[in-house]
Write a structure and sequence with these properties.
about 675 residues, mainly beta, 24 nucleotide stem-loop, u2 snrnp hairpin iv. U2 a', Chain A, 17-stranded parallel β-sheet, 7 helices, about 20% strand, flat
């Protein structure tokens, strides 16, 4: 009998061990109800899933088939389920090792079904409740979240009831844009928040004095961001007052001045607060009623960013006269009545970037930068764009150093860069004009005077879409460009004079679509290009003679669409080309004279739609092409008057295909007979 009993016990133990095995280390994704229903059949004894679980399917109506699962080692994502009304079926899950993500579920009204869940190792995201999630009921057993708690855009969620068991949040607490939320009841037992605090844009939230917030505000260990909620929870002092504590200045906090009232009461609710360690926002993207900044007159320094944005009635920055330093960025964007920056007169340094306007919001009445006169250093970028009334950069006269790029774009009244004379080097790129995206040229800018003392540009130099620019005078002392040199779409530019002292370009050299440019004079001293050389669609360009000092091109050489170019003279010293050679759409080009010393092409050689090209004279010394050789193009057409390939007699190897299309005057392939291998 004892042996039989022992056997039964062992059998039960073995059976229990078999049924409790970990499984699916790479996770599993459920997209249909059938996959849910067949889970236990397809994965018998699988109760501890080691990887991620994703539930995402429009026909999934229930999760009953998952009722054996007790833990998930990775993330659990319940996303985009339009027919799922309940999470019942997950009742036995007690722990999730990664994140729990619940979002875009249009029929889930509560979280019932997660009643057994006690811990989440990562983040808990409950977002985009689609106007149906009314309650967090179902999370009552949850004790700890290892990462962030993020509750966002649940428009009918009225309370946080369901989180009463939660005691610790390892990361930040973020409760944002829940329009019906009236209180934070439910967080009463949270004793620790490990990261930043965000409570904002909850328009009905008026009661925030949960003990965890009172404790956090008494001794914050992260950034405090509380704004744009209902009265009683609209800023940290309102909550502190309800908690019975005072906070004269937030040690890590960010300050949001969204209305004139916020400005006016600043000194009352933050007595003796002169030094701000965090960020300051004045205004908001949806606009504000702010007319003056007088209430901020006691502030002497801001450790983070200062953003002044979308204040349609703000005419000056008077009120900021006490401010001497900004540790982060200064951004002044989309303030339509602002005419000057007077008020910033005592600021001497900006630790981050300076941005005046941007593609979706310039300062349309701003005529000068007066007010920045005492700024000597900018640690980050200098970006000035979309300020349509700005005529000069007066105000930047004392700036001697800029830590990153300079970008001046879409200032249509700007006639001069004078005031940048104290800049001697640019740590990043210099971009004057458009960038091919939402930023455009400075249509009144005639030259680049003001940059006269710049000797080096560590990044690229881009001069693009400046309709009135006639010369590059002002760049005369630049000797090296670390990145690309792009000169594009400057329709009045007649000369590159101003670049005479440039000897090296670190990446590509691109001269494109400058309708009045007749020569490349100004590039005569360039001896090295780190990338390719692209000369494209300059309709009056007649000569490349300024390129005489270039001996090798590591990237592509593209000569395209230059209607007046008759020869390639100027490239005479180029012997090696690392990339492709493209010669297309040059309707006056009669020969390839100028390429006599080119020996090899590393990539493809494509030549087509050159309407008066009769021969390939100039390629007589070329011996190898690493890629394809295409003379003509099956789609774009050939070289209609090309009669001879005899100049290719020295060519012995092609690495790819030989393609000859639509050259209607070509009667012989003589010139290709010495090619030995690689032709297909």
């Amino acid at each position: 009998m004892k042996r039989l009993t022992l056997f039964v016990v062992l059998a039960l133990f073995i059976q229990s061990g078999v049924s409790a095995q970990p499984c699916l280390p790479n996770g599993i994704e459920f997209n249909t109800q059938a996959q849910i229903d067949n889970f236990q059949t397809n994965h018998p004894n699988c109760i501890e899933i080691e990887g991620d679980v994703e539930i995402d399917g429009n026909d999934i109506t229930n999760l009953y088939g998952l009722n054996v699962v007790i833990s998930i080692g990775g993330n659990l994502s319940i996303i985009d389920n339009d027919s799922l009304t309940s999470l019942t079926g997950l009742d036995n899950v007690t722990s999730i090792g990664g994140d729990l993500l619940i979002r875009y579920n249009s029929t889930i009204t509560s979280l019932s079904g997660l009643d057994g869940l006690t811990s989440i190792g990562g983040d808990l995201y409950i977002t985009y409740g689609y106007g149906v999630l009314t309650s967090l009921t179902g999370l009552e057993s949850l004790i700890s979240i290892g990462g962030d708690l993020y509750i966002y855009a649940n428009s009918v969620l009225t309370s946080l009831t369901g989180l009463e068991g939660l005691t610790s949040i390892g990361g930040y607490l973020k409760i944002v844009s829940n329009a019906s939320l009236t209180s934070l009841t439910g967080l009463d037992n949270v004793t620790s928040i490990g990261g930043d605090l965000f409570i904002n844009d909850n328009t009905s939230l008026s009661s925030c004095e949960a003990q965890c917030l009172c404790d956090y505000l008494s001794n914050p260990n992260g950034s405090v961001n509380i704004f744009n909620n209902a009265s009683g929870c609209n800023n940290p002092p309102e909550i502190a007052n309800a908690c019975g504590i005072t906070i004269p200045c937030l040690p890590y906090g960010n300050y949001y001045f969204l209305t004139q009232t916020d400005i006016n009461i600043f000194q009352t609710i933050y007595p003796n607060c002169t030094i701000i360690d965090g960020h300051v926002d004045v205004g908001q993207w949806f606009g504000s009623d702010i007319t003056n900044l007088n209430g901020l007159s006691v502030i002497t320094s801001i450790g983070g960013n200062l953003r002044i944005l979308v204040n349609d009635s703000l005419t000056s920055l008077v009120g900021l006269e006490g401010l001497t330093s900004i540790g982060g960025d200064l951004r002044i964007i989309d303030n339509d009545s602002l005419t000057s920056l007077t008020g910033l007169n005592n600021v001497t340094s900006i630790g981050g970037g300076l941005k005046i306007g941007q593609w979706n919001g310039g300062n349309t009445a701003l005529t000068s930068l007066t007010g920045l006169d005492n700024v000597t250093s900018i640690g980050g970028d200098l970006s000035i764009s979309h300020n349509t009334a700005l005529t000069s950069l007066t105000g930047l006269d004392n700036v001697t150093s800029i830590g990153a790029y300079i970008f001046i774009s879409s200032n249509n009244a700007l006639t001069s860069l004078t005031s940048l004379e104290n800049i001697t080097s640019i740590q990043g790129s210099l971009k004057i004009g458009g960038d091919g995206d939402f930023n455009y040229g400075n249509n009144s800018l005639l030259n680049l005077s003001g940059l006269d003392n710049v000797t080096s540009i560590e990044g690229g130099l881009s001069i693009m879409e400046n309709e009135a620019l006639t010369s590059l005078t002002g760049l005369d002392n630049v000797t090296s460009i670390g990145g690309e040199l792009n000169i594009d779409y400057n329709n009045a530019l007649t000369s590159l004079t101003g670049l005479y002292n440039v000897t090296s370009i670190g990446e590509y050299l691109v001269i494109s679509q400058n309708a009045a440019l007749t020569s490349l004079t100004g590039l005569d001293n360039v001896t090295s290009i780190g990338g390719g050389l692209l000369i494209r669609y300059n309709s009056t360009l007649t000569s490349l003679t300024a390129m005489n000092n270039i001996t090798s091109i590591p990237g592509d050489l593209r000569i395209e669409g230059n209607d007046s170019l008759k020869s390639l003279t100027g490239l005479d010293n180029v012997t090696l080309l690392g990339g492709n050679l493209e010669i297309d759409y040059n309707y006056s080009l009669t020969s390839l004279t100028g390429l006599e010393n080119l020996i090899s092409i590393g990539g493809d050689f494509n030549i087509y739609r050159n309407g008066v090209l009769t021969s390939l004279t100039g390629l007589d010394n070329m011996t190898s092409i690493g890629g394809n050789l295409a003379i003509g193009n099956s789609y774009w057409g050939g070289n209609t008057v090309l009669t001879s390939l005899s100049s290719l007699e020295g060519l012995t190897s092609i690495g790819g295909y030989l393609l000859i299309y639509s050259n209607y005057s070509l009667t012989s392939l003589s010139g290709l007979y010495n090619i030995e291998a690689g032709i297909n």
